[in-house]
Amino acid sequence: MALDKNQIAKRIAQEVKNGMYVNLGIGIPTLVANYIPHGIEVVLQSENGLLGMGPFPTEDKVDADLINAGKQTITTLPGSSIFSSSDSFGMIRGEHVDLTILGAMEVSEEGDIANWKIPGKMVKGMGGAMDLVASAKNIIVAMQHTARDGSSKLLKECTLPITGLKCVKKIVTDLAVLEVTDKGFKLLERAPGVTVEDIQKATEGTLIVEGDIPEVQL
């Protein structure tokens, strides 16, 4: 059974360590805020100028004046700090973000990421993603393993315009958890009921399988 978006976010939340400053990208990454393990203290950053982002709001908690970089409504926590985007990017470019969690359209087996240009659609540009991938100490990608037509999104080489080169460390998809190595995608975990063969068929890039691969534990 493939993981849904919330399950992908919940698995990624297991990668968050105590004391980290974490940037959450648009889409699935925003859901990670809902699954930070109890007892773990982290500071979530939004690149439009916020430290101390809280869980995704329920309808009764929505405040239209509080938004993230993707213009989604968010919540703040006691002690949150709101400041200019120039200060925010000073933090990012100064390498003060420990972990960046991003969505992606494609990732190559060398860790290149393409996550901003949608074929046939007008877009304003890649925005802050280029700063995040160039400056973050650790990048984890949340994405679907395949496109709607069944084609792989984990490729030998990206076909879409590149956001960053050799920067992705780990990927969590609806089918698997993978680590990017100098030899390709190393399979770490598989979604419940998904076989190694299923993942191999869905992965165009080099897939490294060593020993028994455990199922994702949520």
From TrEMBL:
Family: Belongs to the 3-oxoacid CoA-transferase subunit B family.
Highest taxon above the source species: Bacteria
Keyword Transferase found: yes
Full protein name: 3-oxoacid CoA-transferase subunit B
Record keywords: Transferase
SUPFAM superfamilies documented for this protein: NagB/RpiA/CoA transferase-like (SSF100950)
Coiled coil (residue ranges): none
Native source organism of the sequence: Pontibacter populi
Transmembrane domains' residue ranges: none
Pfam name, any one: CoA_trans
